[in-house]
Amino acid sequence: MKNNIYNRLRIALICFTLLAGIFVVSCDKDDDNGGSVELYSFGPSPVLRGSDIHFIGQDLDLVTSVVLPDNIEVSNITVVSSSEITITVPQEAEPGLVTLKYKGGSITTKSRIGYTEPYSITSILPVETAVREGEEVTISGDYLNNIVKVVFQGNASVDSADFVSQSRKEIVVKVPKEAVSGKIIVEDIHENQLYSDLELSISQPTLTSFSPTLVKAGENVMISGANLDLVSEIIFSGDSSVVAKDFVSVSSTSIEIVSSAYIQDGPITLKAYSGVEVISSESVTTVIPSALTIAAVSRYRAGLEVLITGSDLDLTTSVQFTGGTAITDFTYNGTGITVVIPNDAMDGVVVLNTASGKSASTDAIVLVKPIAADVTPNPVDANNDITITGTDLDLVKSVTFGNDLTVDITPESSTSITVTVPMEATTGELILTMINGAVVNTSSVTVNSPDYCYIPVLPDSETEINSGKVFSIDVVNGGALTEVKVDGNTTSSFVEGTNMYVFIPSKASGKTELTLISATGSISYTISVIGVSSIETVIMNETHDLGSWANEDAGGAFRLYKPSFNGVKAGSILKFYFTVSGTPGRMQINDANWGQQAMLEFTDEAQTSYEMELTQGFLDQILNTSDGWSETAAAIQGQNLVISKVTVITFEASASETIWTGSQVMPGDWSGNIQLSADLFASANVGDVIHVKSSDVQTGAQGSFKNGSWTEIAAGTDYFDITGDFELTITADILTSLQSGGLIISGHDYTATEVSIRS
C-alpha cells in the first residue's frame, strides 16, 4: 500500500509537470495486461536518440523488453526500482507507440514517442595538447545551438550564458578551474546529454620540489612546480593545511606559505580546485628542540626550579617530568625554559613536547629524597609517638611500620616527622613513601608491644553502638583489664576470650570517650554512640539591637532569668540567634551583678547564630549570684548585634528496645514481610520511633508500614522509596493501631535485619 501511495503521488506530480512536454502521461493499462504491471508515464519526449528514456509505473522490474517503432526491441533494461526503468534509445528508432513486454502480457503506450534534432559532436580543439583553466575549447558539430550547458569531467560545468560563443555548428567555452581530463558532455534544455568521443586533456598542478625540507613551525616554505596557481590548498601530515587565501604568494610556478605549528613529518599534498591531489616524493622533517641541557636552579627537588637550555626551545608547548603530567605553566625567556619540579616527578629524563607531536628529552635527573638521620625513642612502645629527624621530610606522605602497617601523615616540617606507632606494629625497618610514590628505607625501629589491654581494630562507621546497651569488641591482653570508663565514669565490663563486653550508659551520646585501664597502662578511644535526643527551649524571644553598648532603657541590653535554667545540666547549650549589623560584633555576658563571664566577638556578617556550651562553673556563677532585687541569671550587652532569640538546648539519652532480629529478604515481587504482634508495642509511647535496619538495598527499593489489616498504617506509608535504614514516628493514631493490631513491615529489593523502638 505504501508503494502504491508513493507511486500515485509521484504520477500525480508527473501529470502536473509534464505539461511542459518532458514526459508523456500514459495512465491507462493496455487491455492485454492481465498482471500487476502498470505504466503511468514515460519520458522525456521528445528525446534525443542515443540518450536515456525513463518509464514510471508499478512492478516495472518485471518488464523483459521494450519495443520501439518500427519493431526495435530493446532488452538491455536498467532497473532503477520496481517503479522505474530506463533504456537507451537506439539511433534507428522512429516516432510512434512504445510497447513494454513482460511475462504473461504487455503494455502499449497511449501516447507517441517523439525525437529531438540529432545534435552531434564531431571534434574538440585542442585535443592533442593540454589546456588549463581559463583557456578556450572549441566544440564542433551540428545543432549545437540547442545546447544549454557544457559539462566537463570533475563535475564542472559552464552554462550557455557564459559561453564565449555559440552557433549551430560550434560552441566556444573557457575551461573552469574545477575541470579534469576526460570526455566533454553537451546538454539540451530537456537534460538530454551527449558525450564526446574524444577526450580533453586538462593541465593539473605538478610539484617538482619544496624547500626547506627541514621545517621549523612558523618558517616560510617555498614550493616549485607548474600550474601551481590551480592549487586550492596545501596539506601537511597531521591534517594541518594552508588554504589559497592564506598563501604568502602564488604564481603558476611557485607558492610561498607560512608553516603551521601543527605540521608533522611526512609528504606535502597539493590539492587542486578540481579535487586532484599531488603528493610530494620528498617528506617534511619538523624541527624540534635540540642540544638540550638541564640544571637545577638550586637542587633537583620537588617544588624547586630547573633551567633547560638548548636550541629552538620556542617550539615547546609543555614540559613533562618522568612519572608526572604535562606542565604548560613554564617560563621561556628567549634563551631557556624555567619550570618547577612537580610533586609527582620521579627520577628520569625531562621531555619537551611540541605542537607537531614530536618531543625531545634532556639527560636523566636524580631527584632529592628524604633522609631520616635519627628516630627517637628507639625502642618505642606501641601507641606512642616517635620523631623522625632528618632533611626533606616534607616530601613524605606516609610511614610504614613493621607488620606492614602504614600511617598517612601531613608533615609540618622538612626536618622532623612525629607519628604514632600503630598498636599492632612490630619491630622492623621504617619505610618512608614520598608524594611521588617512591620509597625510602630507614633504620630499624624496635617496637615494644603493649602488655595492657587495647582494641586492635576500632568499629567501622557501619557498626551501631547504642546507649543503654552492651557493646562487644575484640581486644588484646584482655586478662590485664582492670577497669573501663565511659566519658570518665566507670561502667560495668567483662572479658571472655578475646571479646570485651562493655555497658554503654544511657546518658552517653555522640562522640564518647572509652578508656581501658590495666595495671600497666591505659588507653582511650573515641567512639560514636547512638541515642542522643535534644530539646531546644526558647528563653527569650524579643528583638534587642545592642547598638553601641545601648542600655536596657534604649532596648539594647537585656536579661536572662534564673527560672529559664532550672534543671539545666552542664553540657547543655546556650544558643543566641542574631544579625551582625557591623564588624566586629561583640556580645558581653555578665552575671546578675554585671560581672563579665564571657566576651564574644563576631567578624563574619553572614553568621546568624552562636552556640555556647554551659559548663558547671558558668551555671554555678549565674545561678548563685544575686543582685538583691531580681531573678536575673545573666545580663547581655554589646555592640553591632541585633539579637532576636535565645534558647537552651538540653540533651536526653534515648533508650532503644529491639523487638525483632533476623534476615528477612524483601524480593522485588513484594512477597516478603515481617508481622509484629500487638503485644510488642504495649510499652510504646507517642513520639517513639520504629527503626528498621536494612542491608542489600537495591536501586529503586521501597519500604512499607501496614496495620494488622494490611492497609497503610498512616498516610504515605503504603510504599515509599528507601536507600538504607528507615523509620516510622509513632503518633496517637498509629499507637492505637499498633496496640490493637500490630505492625506489618514489607516492601521490595532489600533485606530487613532488625526492628527496634527508640524513645
UniProtKB/TrEMBL annotation:
It holds the Pfam family TIG. Transmembrane segments: none annotated. Residues 1-20 form the signal peptide. Residues 120-182 form the IPT/TIG domain. Keywords: Signal. CDD domains: IPT. InterPro entries: Ig-like_fold, Ig_E-set, IPT_dom. This is IPT/TIG domain-containing protein. It comes from Labilibaculum manganireducens.
